[in-house]
Amino acid sequence: MTTAIAEVGVETAGDLLKNWQGHRRLTRRVIEAFPEDKLFAFSIGGMRPFSELAWEFIRMAVPIAEGVATGKWAEFSFAKASVTTKSELLRIWDEQTARLDEVFAQIPPHRFSEVDKAFGQWEGRGIDTIRYAIDNEIHHRGQGYVYLRALGIEPPPFWER
To answer: Which pTM was predicted?
Structure first.
């Protein structure tokens, strides 16, 4: 016996952005929780320091929104962060967060369902590429939680976005 599943629209573009920005607010609090020296140097098991993970999120968020908005995908930058202080990382984070709101508002509705090859690497609908960015941030933020706990620091509650 099979069960039919009804097609239901359960999320608007505004809901998607609100969810993404909620995750970004939480990730920002994780960055803030790190002592300055540990943010750039501490790792476990050969994983990257959390500053490098945060830089990856910075390199992805706005370029993904721009690519979904326009269908034009710049080459993905694998460059390491040139920032060396928490305050500079947070400043750039905040600038990118504000820019994400601006760019996201320019995404035409049809672009969420159109298929592109993002950064020449993976092919999918615009909404799936955005979800990838969110999932990637959640995944790597989990590493940050492990790092903070290993340092004896209580991470921010994950449900407070």
So the answer is: 0.90
